[in-house]
Design a protein that fits this description.
Helix content: under 10%
Order of helices and strands: EEEEEEEEEEE
Radius of gyration: 13 Å
Strand content: over 45%
Number of strands: 11
Shape: globular
Structural class: mainly beta
Distance between the termini: 40 Å
Mean pLDDT: 95
Largest sheet: 7 strands, mixed
């Protein structure tokens, strides 16, 4: 069992930066690939980025490539999402998730555990 708690969301101006954190409980955190997803009002939940259990592989949605960076610290049971050059269209609730399949994936259905989400608002 893994419990996930996101933090770091807030209000930022367009062009600004935020760093989200996702703290995980459970001794097996380091074995889970982790992902970030987001959901804006009236839209489907969408994939943002994912990282392998070791951190050596990362994948990004085209919409955030070059602006967002995912990383993890297995010693701290934490995964991070550094978001730079934020745009109004990045505004959403951001969720971290742990993949039960053992590999990083962009499909929400492959993720077994989810956090409660943190709100990111970007003003233009």
């Amino acid at each position: 069992q893994v419990q996930l708690v996101e933090s770091g969301g807030g209000l930022v101006q367009a062009g600004g930066s935020l760093r989200l954190s996702c703290a995980a409980s459970g001794r097996t955190f380091s074995t889970y690939p982790m992902g970030w997803f987001r959901q804006a009002p009236g839209k489907e939940r969408e994939f943002v980025t994912t990282i392998s259990w070791s951190g050596d592989r990362t994948y990004y949605a085209d919409s955030v490539k070059g602006r967002f960076t995912i990383s993890r610290d297995n010693a701290k049971n934490t995964v991070y999402l550094q978001m730079n050059s934020l745009k109004p269209e990045d505004a959403a609730v951001y969720y971290c998730a742990a993949s039960g399949g053992g590999f990083p994936t962009g499909r929400a259905r492959d993720y077994e555990y989810w956090g409660q989400g943190t709100q990111v608002t970007v003003s233009s």
